[in-house]
Structure formats: C-alpha cells, structure tokens
C-alpha cells in the first residue's frame, strides 16, 4: 500500500491467443525480459507496475467467451473477459458468475489475484469458483489444469497454486469457471447496532445458527455519516454500526424462513429496527448506504482518492480490530470510514489522500496501515483478504507465515520461473 | 486399482510431535531412505505401499485435538485424529466437521488424499475445509501454511498445494479445519426413477433450481436389488434407479420450503413416489439402502471383497457413463452395483473379487475399470473424484491433463523433494 512507483513499460504487447502469449513468453525468456500481464489495471497493490522494467502483456483483447455449458453450470472464458461482460452474456441462461470484487475486473486478473468480495460469504472466492485454467509457463509451455468435473483428486492442485499467484508463476490465458442459478427469491435487510461489538456478535450468531447469508456487510458509524452527507436527496439513515444482509432461496417461503431466524439473531445481539424487504426497489433503498460507500467516502474530502486497506481476522476478533482502527483514524485526525465483508472477517478502511498532501500527512496514513497490519497479524489474521500481495504487502509475508513458509514460496517461484521473468518483484523476491 | 504390491516396510516409526517428524525426515534425507506416512491405512490406491522400500511413519498416535475455537468455528488437530473422534469431541459444542469419506480415516490422511464424500455437495471437500496446515518438508524444515482467517490472498496457496499431495511433497502433522453448526432441522427424501437418465435429469434440475442439497446420492437398480437380498428383515424397496436426498436448514419451515421445490424437480423429471421424512428414525429407514450399500454389495458374493472404482464427470454426462458402466458389468458377467455422489457427478462401482478368483476373472475387472477410465476422460471427467492417484492411477494423469501439465507436477515434486524420499512412486515419478 502507498508505495510510489516510478517506472514504465518498455513496450505493450496485445495478445489474442494462448499461442501468442506462449510466443511472447519464449521471446522474453530468450532475452531475460520481465513480463507483466495486464487485465483491467484495477488491482490495488502495485501488481502491474514494472518495478524491474519490461514488457506489459495486455490481455484485454483476449475477451472471448469460449463456451457456456448451461446444463453443467460452467463456462470457459479467455482471461480478458470482464465479470460484467460475462454476466451480460449469461443473462438469457438464468445463470450468473457471482464473485464480485467491486471493480469490473477481468476474470483472468481475478483468478491471478484470488479475488473475492461481497458475495463470498455465500459463493466463496475465485479459489472455490475456478474449475480449471489454461496457462503459459515461463518456458513457454502451455498447461491445462483442473477440468470440468466438480471435484477431483487427480494429482497436485495446480489450479489453486495459480489462483492468487499474481502473474508470477504463469500467465493465465483461459479459465473454466463455476456458474450458479440466479436465485428465485431474494430479500435484503439492515439492522443498526449500538456498538461494533454488538454488530459483530450478531454476525457470529448468524453464522453459528447456520443462517445461509448471501451477503453480510458491516459499515461503521463514520461510513454511515459519510453516506448521510453524500446522499442529500434521501432522508438521513440512523448513524451507528449497521449490518447489511441479503438472503437468497428457492422460494419466498424459504427466504422468509431464513429472514425470521436472522431477525432473532440480530435482536438477541442488541440490534434495533431490523428492516427487511423483498422487492428490488426496496432492497436497493435499504442497501443504498452500502452501495455508495466508496463514493460517499471520497466526497468527505473533495479532490481526494481512496487508499483502501485490507485486513482479515477470525470473526471473534473483528469488532476489536475494527474499533482499534477506527480509533486510530480518529486520533490521527484523518478521514477513514470503515466497511467490511463481516461474514468473512474481512474489512477495509478508506483512507483519503490528495495529490497535494504533504509527506507528513501521507506518513500518518502509512502509520495507520502499519498498526493495522500489526494488529491483524497479532489477532491471527492475514495481511490481505482479497487485494493480494503485489509490491505493497511483501514485507508482511514473513511476519505472517515465518521464514520457512516464505522460503517454500520462493522455492516454488525459483522452480517454475528460474529466470525470474514473470512479474518479477511481486509476491516474493528471489 | 487392482495393483498387486509385494513389499514391506524396513521399519515403522511412531511419531508424537512435529519435531519428531522433522527429526525422522532429516534422518531419512541423510540416508536417502523413502518415508511413507501412515494414518489409518484406509486409502484405496496403494498410497501407503512401500514400492521402493523404506520407513513407515505412523502418525496414528499424533491424536491430539489442539484447539477448538467455537466462536470462530474452527479447530486445530494433529494429523492422526480421526474424523469420528473429532466429532465425538465436538458433541457438546453444537459444531461438527462434515467431510465424510465413509471410513473413519485420520484427518491428516484425509487432507493428504483430498478426501470428500456424501456431504460434499453441501460442504465441499477437504480443499474447501482446510484453513491451514503444519507440515514438514523433505529438508526437515517445518512450515505453517494458511491460518485462521476465513479467506486470504497472501501469497501462494501452499495449503491447497499440500491438500491432495498424498505425502509426496511434505508430511502433514497438523491441520486447521473449518467447523459447522449442526443443522437445526433436517429432512430426508427418496425418489424412484424409471431410468438413470431421468434420475440424473432430476439432479440437474435440483442443482439448476438452486435447491440447497445437503446430500444427493444415486443408487442404480443393481444396488437396490443387492439391498433387498441383504436386508431380509425389512420389506423390499421398489427396484430401479433411486435418488437419496437430504436437506438442512435453520428451521422446519426452511427445510419444508426446500423439500417442496425438490419434489417439483423430481416430479418434473419423471420421478415417482417422492417420500420424505423429518424424524431421525424415519430418515434412517428411508436411507437404509444407501447406508448399507457396501455391505449389501459384498453379500452378493460371499467371501469377496469390493474393489471400488472412482470416476467423476460433468453432471450432463453422468447418466450415460453410469449406464455404460452398468451395461459393461452385466455383459462381463461379474458383480458390480453402482452408487454415486450424484450431486458432484462422482460415482463408484463395487467390483467383487475373491482371493481364489482365477487371473482371467481379475483381468475382466481390470478391463471394466480401463473402459470406465477411457469413458470418463472422453466425457471431460477426472480419473478420480476422491480416492486419489497413489500408484493405481498414475497412468491416467497424462491422458487426463497432457504431458506439459504432468511435467509441471513433476517439476514441483523435484523442487520440493529433490532426493525423492517422500512417498516415492506415488502420484508422479521423477
């Protein structure tokens, strides 16, 4: 996070097929040229920066949807297809691809980054939703991992080794993905809590009761305040830690049965005014503060951009780490509304920075993030829930895992990319 | 499958801690001695055979349950803890560990084998349920992978590289596992179909309707006949392809809502006499034929043991591959009832063999399996859904994945175990 990159690509190559990617990789291997694959450029930890120079391999024109197997609920796409274009294409099938990191990222990039988002509590991350890959190794060899079967124990799990490898072990050119039926019934709910602790207790209660959550998001009071000052055309919503829930099911009866148990869980944890809705317009209204969190945050300080932290902890530690972070933001005198994928224990703080901020101001934000990372690791969490390592988080890997484990990662990198041409300087250094 | 092993261990070492395992690995590295880890010995593809001699590392006495974090629904166990002993230990917490391969296998073995079973359609395999591992590398170095966070994108996914690696990349000594609440309400159902195709169509319809299935098993007519001749104390059940379903939920209302949509899916696919029950005794009665499948099969031919094939295909090909296999069994004049984890596209044929069968008989069984594997790969499936590669299925890896992909597996093996001391001769040869 917050690393400044001063670098540029020597060239940008647009590839259109796995064979072209293989040819480019072979050329880069011959000339020992770093190769950085590029999808939509929406990653957040410097993944696409040319820290050692080199060639940018732009896969955005590899945007073919190669197959949709509706009967088996899977599809095969080229790496440059974005998640929204896939979902548009699927519209008539009654199926969808649910992983939603916010940005309209390319699916190859989402695989490479191990992306997830608001629907992960129900559908999992890219790890659970990638059935197989076509990828080009550093030698130029093309591999096909996984397959179309829903499960398999045939050999090493190369698919999941490549998911989240951030372009450092292979170039992903195609992905076989799981699809899901659009739910027959959906309902949404919101619930205000007196404290972050009470809201987190409600999340724990929902999970421990086995309530099937489609989404489970938490906004802190400062994020709600940001919404109220941003969305001046609608009435203010009550300020305080607020849970945003969504339920899905095969019928209104099923969704109603779920919502009724969910309400009990929230009530028992001190939640007030549990509101729920089934019509799309009412659901949209209930969730408005969550849907506009990012832009509401930016509006707190005109002209700023958001630097989004990323931390994930066991649920039992979520309230404590969120509160300490909110306190840290407040006492540092900066802006930083907090929202979280609470059902996963994952949360973000949107730190606002302007290009003309003095170095001392930027240093404050960096210090907040450093303390957040220390707190997260001490709580048994991970330095990144969904943004990946890139350049910005390399330094936390050894504190998180220990030297032996990171050395095992380096050994894999050395083994699969001995010339260090695939996105060098990211994830681990060799 | 069906490989005969004539080998024995030079010694059996009982380890009690990760440190002891590390010391044994270092000694084996010094002396280039093969090391075969052993849990309960319930794997099916020759994983624990000493094909190159060597030492058996018995982990069954590493049976400590190190932590149960009820609030976060996770636990940490030593590798030798069996799934049943973990679930007994959890009884008072309202939580359970759901992956159920049938045998009371050790959890370390289940991780190593990438195990799954009847509950996988709901809860996933060991891949989805292993949060982190402690493991000893071939150098003796101890690594800790993953962690307690519910998701993470911090570096290469070493956990899932080791899940399913069958003791060939590292010795797993501890596992951090996801736990789940025991469901508040459960119901079971059975439904008879005129053909395998109709039953498979019902499964596809259930999945495409988003019906949350807790279990979804399919028995062919020969498996039902085997049950009727085995369970003479209960009335015969109607003979024909039969689906065995289970639903879970937070309340009877939720489970009822699910069962009602499930019944529609079965009716629309030509299913007859959809029966369902919520009380435990009635559920047990409905599912009796499924629960006793294996022993009913053995009873068809007294004195025999079952050789269990393992294949997984996309759901749209399940009926066809099951039918061709059933026809092959019938026309070969052998016994081979078929049952499947239909919701995953995974099925098994129980081929019966006696120690005094002539070589021609055994050759017939091998030929059935060879044809099944060819059919499975042609249908875009995997040569093993849950039993793993071991020795018996090595030869199918190149046909399934292609040479480049298997070479990538070999490269990982060479990199992490350059002396080839960890369970050599399994998964891939180097």
TrEMBL record, chains A, B:
Pfam family, one: FAD-oxidase_C
Co-factor(s): FAD
GO cellular component: mitochondrion
Enzyme class per UniProt: oxidoreductase
Domain of life: Eukaryota
PROSITE patterns hit by this protein: FAD_PCMH
Enzyme Commission (EC) number: 1.1.2.4
Keywords assigned: FAD, Flavoprotein, Mitochondrion, Oxidoreductase, Transit peptide
One Gene Ontology molecular-function label: FAD binding
Ranges of residues in domain FAD-binding PCMH-type: 5-182
Record localization: Mitochondrion
GO biological process: lactate catabolic process
Protein family according to the UniProt entry: Belongs to the FAD-binding oxidoreductase/transferase type 4 family.
PANTHER family: D-LACTATE DEHYDROGENASE, D-LACTATE DEHYDROGENASE, MITOCHONDRIAL-RELATED
Protein name per the record: D-lactate dehydrogenase (cytochrome)
Lineage per the UniProt record: Eukaryota, Haptista, Haptophyta, Prymnesiophyceae, Prymnesiales
């Amino acid at each position: 996070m917050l690393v400044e990159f001063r670098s540029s690509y020597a060239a940008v190559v647009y590839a259109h097929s796995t064979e072209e990617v293989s040819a480019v990789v072979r050329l880069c291997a011959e000339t020992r040229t770093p190769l950085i694959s590029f999808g939509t450029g929406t990653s957040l930890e410097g993944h696409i920066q040319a820290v050692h120079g080199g060639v940018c391999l732009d896969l955005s024109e590899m945007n073919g949807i190669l197959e949709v197997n509706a009967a088996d609920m899977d599809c095969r796409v080229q790496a440059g297809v974005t998640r929204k274009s896939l979902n548009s294409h699927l519209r008539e099938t009654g199926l969808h691809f649910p992983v939603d990191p916010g940005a309209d990222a390319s699916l190859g990039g989402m695989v490479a980054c191990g992306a997830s988002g608001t629907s992960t509590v129900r559908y999992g991350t890219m790890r659970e939703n990638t059935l197989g890959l076509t990828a080009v190794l550093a030698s130029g060899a093309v591999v096909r991992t996984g397959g179309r079967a829903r499960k398999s124990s045939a050999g090493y799990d190369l698919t999941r080794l490549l998911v989240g490898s951030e372009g450092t072990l292979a170039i992903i050119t195609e992905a076989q993905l799981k699809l899901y039926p659009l739910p027959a019934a959906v309902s949404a709910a919101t619930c205000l809590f007196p404290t972050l602790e009470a809201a987190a207790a409600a999340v724990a209660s929902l999970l421990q009761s086995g309530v099937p959550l489609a989404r489970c998001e938490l906004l802190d009071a400062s994020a709600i305040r940001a919404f109220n000052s941003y969305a001046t055309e609608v009435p203010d919503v009550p300020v305080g830690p607020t849970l945003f829930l969504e339920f899905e099911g095969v019928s209104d009866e099923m969704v109603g049965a779920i919502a009724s148990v969910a309400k009990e869980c929230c009530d028992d944890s001190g939640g007030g005014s549990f509101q729920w809705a089934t019509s799309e317009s009412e659901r949209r209204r209930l969730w408005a503060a969550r849907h506009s969190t990012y832009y509401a945050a930016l509006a707190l300080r005109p002209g700023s951009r958001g630097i989004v932290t990323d931390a994930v902890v066991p649920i039992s530690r979520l309230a404590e780490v969120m509160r300490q972070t909110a306190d840290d933001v407040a006492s540092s005198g900066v802006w930083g509304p907090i929202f979280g994928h609470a059902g996963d224990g994952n949360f973000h703080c949107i730190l606002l920075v302007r290009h003309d901020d003095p170095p001392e101001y930027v240093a404050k934000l960096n210090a907040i993030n450093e303390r957040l990372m220390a707190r997260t690791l001490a709580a048994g969490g991970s330095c990144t829930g969904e943004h990946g390592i890139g350049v910005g988080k390399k330094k936390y890997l050894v504190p998180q895992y220990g030297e032996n484990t990171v050395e095992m990662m380096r050994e894999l990198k050395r083994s699969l990319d001995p010339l260090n041409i695939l996105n060098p300087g990211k994830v681990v250094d060799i």
